[in-house]
Design goal:
- By secondary structure, the chain is mostly helical.
- It has a domain of about 220 residues.
- It is about 70% helix and about 0% strand.
- It has 13 helices and 2 strands; from the N terminus they run ααααααααααααββα.
- A two-stranded antiparallel ribbon has the order 1-2.
- The longest helix is centred in the first third of the chain and has 30 residues.
């Protein structure tokens, strides 16, 4: 395998893994506080539509980012109102968010832009561009280093590096701060936390707020970095893959990172294998190749969900005892 292919695979892996990692960290924060978040997919999809619509309407990258973050944040609060304030079923609420997001984004897109639910292509001024194009160009002629360092590691936009930097940041917040200790305690024994004078409701809303912001970044990445416009259901199950990654990673940021990189690598390999003729099996069917990341999702959930130990209070509504 030559250096160009290795650099291309490394770069593609990081690009594909970025929205998965942002979503997995979002779900990790929520579920560490005891709130199941099946709605990662819907929040990411809604944020992608909001960012694309705002970017197409205003031509501003800032407004596109604010719209995506704001919509995902509001949906997280809606999930909190249903599950935290009113002790609703967390799985049902998350599924409802996914269904509403899938339908509403397609309907609004068709009504506003008259392109079958798709938004107009965003201008280059609204897109996220690589941070160091000059460095990539300077390294282009250097053997191995140019492909691996330039194309593989330096040819990305800011959100890729933000996602990677958030892994140690989330670890530090959860395991090295008082806020993180309380958040994890809420997911393990909320009654004890309430008895210590800390509001369980407030901590879970804080976790859901961070969750919404990270889902918003993931959705913004899809339309501002990967694609030039919003397409209905463009998340294509990435929210569920992120959920599988955080379970496979045992609700730990580093474990979730490796799982997302594995998914991203499989997706990058799947793209490279399309149309390739192998010596024994012949041409690889495109459908099989595209299904690889999703098959792995099912395998991981089926094989590891029984082995990974979830927070003890995960999915259990907390009702404060009145005296």
């Amino acid at each position: 395998m030559d250096e160009v292919l290795l650099g291309s695979l490394l770069g593609s892996t990081l690009r594909v893994a970025t929205p998965l990692l942002l979503c997995a960290l979002a779900g990790l924060l929520s579920e560490r506080s005891g709130v199941v978040d099946i709605g990662l997919e819907g929040k990411m999809l809604s944020a992608a539509f909001a960012a694309a619509a705002a970017g197409a309407a205003t031509g501003s990258l800032g407004w596109a980012l604010l719209a995506g973050l704001g919509v995902a944040l509001v949906l997280s609060w809606v999930h909190g109102v249903a599950c935290v304030s009113h002790s609703g079923d967390q799985v049902v609420s998350g599924v409802a968010l996914n269904i509403i997001a899938a339908g509403l984004t397609a309907v609004l897109g068709a009504a506003w832009f008259r392109q079958g639910g798709q938004t107009p292509a965003l201008a280059d001024s609204v897109r996220l561009t690589p941070l160091w194009p000059d460095a990539v160009a300077a390294l282009q002629g250097v053997p191995w280093l140019g492909a691996l360092l330039g194309q593989g590691l330096l040819g990305h936009n800011a959100l890729v590096y933000v996602a990677l930097a958030l892994v140690p940041a989330v670890w530090w917040v959860l395991w090295r701060t008082r806020f993180g200790l309380r958040l994890r305690a809420v997911g393990e024994n909320p009654a004890m936390v309430e008895a210590a004078g800390v509001s369980v409701t407030r901590m879970r809303y804080a976790a859901l707020s961070l969750n919404g912001l990270l889902c918003g970044l993931a959705g913004c990445y899809l339309v501002l970095a990967q694609s030039a416009s919003f397409v209905p259901n463009m998340t294509a199950g990435r929210g569920f893959m992120a959920l599988a990654a955080l379970i496979f990673g045992k609700w730990h940021p580093v474990g979730a990172l490796w799982a997302c990189l594995l998914f991203g690598f499989l997706d990058a390999v799947a793209i490279r294998l399309q149309g390739v003729v192998l010596p024994v099996v012949g041409e690889v069917p495109v459908q099989w190749v595209q299904a690889l990341p999703y098959i792995l999702t099912v395998v991981l959930l089926a094989g590891f969900i029984g082995k990974a130990v979830a927070p003890k209070a995960l999915g259990i509504p907390y009702v404060k005892e009145r005296t």
